[in-house]
Design brief:
Layout lengths: L2 H8 L3 H5 L7 E4 L7 H9 L7 E4 L18 E5 L7 H6 L3 E2 L6 H7 L7 E6 L7 E3 L7 H7 L2 E6 L7 E2 L2 E3 L5 E4 L14 H12 L6 E4 L3 H8 L8 E7 L1 H8 L15 E6 L3 H7 L5 E3 L2 H4 L2 H4 L5 E5 L3 E3 L4 E2 L2 E2 L2 E2 L6 H9 L7 E5 L3 E3 L5 E3 L1 E2 L17 E4 L2 E4 L5 H10 L3 H15 L4
Parallel strand pairs: 1-2, 1-5, 2-3, 3-4, 5-7, 7-10, 8-14, 11-12, 11-15, 12-13, 13-14, 15-20, 16-23, 20-24
Antiparallel strand pairs: 6-9, 16-17, 18-19, 21-22, 24-25
Helix pairs in contact: 5-6, 7-8, 14-15
The structure holds coenzyme A.
């Protein structure tokens, strides 16, 4: 049978496709922008067909309706990263988080630690050779498509065709649902004075010719905005957002000094606006590869002058970084933070650095100002990057390097970059904590 015949035979409506999901199945969704909105909506609309269907994913910008309490008999969310749609499911007890480094997700799917009956993804229409592209994502989705018993795909003309490990022959997909929808967009964060100051401190540590990894949140965008005067930067990153496009267009990012994949940006997924997705379409400079390759510390370490930039919710006096929980509330997940902190530390040229950058305080809705630098992590919180792995911590007030410093030196360096109004109290806590004068 020709690929065209296979494709035509497997075309159906979203309602017909989700009928292949059975009660007690484990369903994994394409990661982030690869989530197939039409199929997820059809699954939720047909909720009465299902009992106890597990739904898994990492970052999601979708509505997450399957994670709502009203559907808890039908669906159970059990993923690797919480977001706005799934945090409450964990807090309320009917959802759960599997702690896993992002780089391990494809391996765990391959070796059966994680099993999925159904994988639902978004793909581009088949090209003239009969291959559809996952477009904006390779991450874990590439392996999930290979391993799941049933693969359902929303075919969306808006999905770009990208280079790397994103292609599947139509024969590898069980049902195709044609539904064109503009891809979900994540708008760039607002960059205020605090983020700008943090961006400048980070930029001061980045040499010309460096290769960058940028994490999630406002800080990576702020750092990119401060790199306009650098030369020959490269990208080896779990994700990229719109800011990278501006720097490529300005000739700042050209990947010309990369020691691994020279001339190419290597990423696992894209999360931004139409500007980023248009940039990615058939762009040979960009390669999407699975996360067990991109985030493998041994691979990361092969990039000279590797710099990773991620953010945090809290850092204690010892340099323990909390990035995915607020007290006992699960806020996000480890993502690739630790993968890159470790990869940079192992860099072959000895010049790799990892930066955790964050505002010195957070202001709650009731006006309470909370220092993000604290003597102890909050009760119930989980350490993301531990004190043995941590390197630079940056706030709008400066740079504190943890490596090579003893515990008291670490605490003093951190208090120096805490908010000035809160340093007095932190100094008292230092004396209480260490039994010596500040
Ligand atoms: N105590 C209490 N609340 C805090 C807090 C603290 N110490 N620090 C932050 N918060 C609150 C903020 O007030 C904000 O609340 P709101 O949603 O009600 O406004 C919320 O937590 C988010 O804080 P913010 O600083 O806006 O987060 P961000 O969007 O910049 O993201 C991380 C920061 C750390 C959550 C995010 O980078 C992350 O999830 N990291 C882990 C994964 C990772 O690093 N992956 C890297 C590769 S992708």
């Amino acid at each position: 049978m020709s690929w065209k015949e296979i494709y035509e035979n497997r075309k159906c409506t979203a309602d017909e496709a989700v009928r292949l999901i059975k009660s007690n199945d484990r369903v994994i969704l394409g990661h982030c922008i690869c989530e197939p909105t039409a199929l997820v909506d059809a699954m939720v609309a047909n909720y009465e067909q299902y009992k106890n269907v597990t739904v898994a994913h990492m970052v999601s910008l979708g509505k997450g309706e399957y994670a709502k309490a009203e559907y808890k008999e039908n669906f159970r969310w059990e993923g690797f990263f919480c977001g706005a749609g799934t945090r409450n499911a964990v807090a309320e007890g009917h959802g759960d988080l599997i702690p896993v480094y992002f780089q391990d997700v494809p391996r765990w799917i391959r070796n059966g630690i994680l099993n999925y009956d159904v994988c639902m993804v978004t793909v581009s229409p088949p090209n003239k050779a009969g291959y559809c592209s996952l477009g904006v994502e390779s991450g874990y989705t590439y392996q999930a498509v290979k391993s799941a018993t049933i693969v359902l795909a929303q075919v969306n003309n808006y999905m770009p065709e990208t280079f790397g490990d994103t292609f599947f022959h139509v024969s590898e997909i069980d049902k195709f649902v044609e539904m064109d929808m503009p891809l979900v967009e994540s708008q760039p964060s607002v960059i205020g004075d605090v983020e700008k100051a943090i961006g400048k401190h980070c930029a001061s540590l980045i040499e010309d010719g460096a290769t960058l990894q940028l994490g999630i949140g406002a800080i990576p965008d702020a750092v990119l905005a401060e790199l306009k005067h650098k030369k020959h930067l490269g990208i080896h990153s779990e994700m990229i957002a719109d800011g990278v496009v501006d720097l490529v267009e300005a000739g700042v990012i050209d990947c010309s000094e990369k020691t691994l994949h020279n001339g190419k940006m290597i990423v696992t997924f894209l999360m931004g606006t139409k500007k980023l997705y248009d940039f990615a379409d058939n762009n040979p400079m960009l390669q999407l590869r699975p996360v067990d390759y991109v985030n493998d510390p041994v691979v990361i370490a092969q990039n000279n002058k590797m710099v990773s930039i991620n953010s945090a919710l809290q850092v204690d006096f010892m340099g323990q970084v909390v990035a995915c929980s607020i007290g006992k509330k699960q806020f996000s997940g480890v993502g690739g933070q630790v993968d890159f902190v470790r990869g940079t530390a192992m860099s072959q040229d000895g010049k790799g650095i990892s930066i955790i950058a964050m505002p010195s305080v957070t202001v709650k809705k009731d006006g309470t100002i909370i220092s993000k630098i604290t003597p102890y992590i909050d009760h119930g919180a989980a350490v993301t990057t531990n004190r043995y792995d941590v390197d630079y911590i940056i706030t709008e007030y400066g740079i504190a390097r943890m490596r090579g410093k003893n515990l008291k030196e670490r605490a003093r360096a951190l208090i120096n970059i805490a908010h000035p109004d809160l340093r007095g109290k932190l100094k008292e806590e230092f004396e209480d904590r260490f039994n010596v004068a500040y």
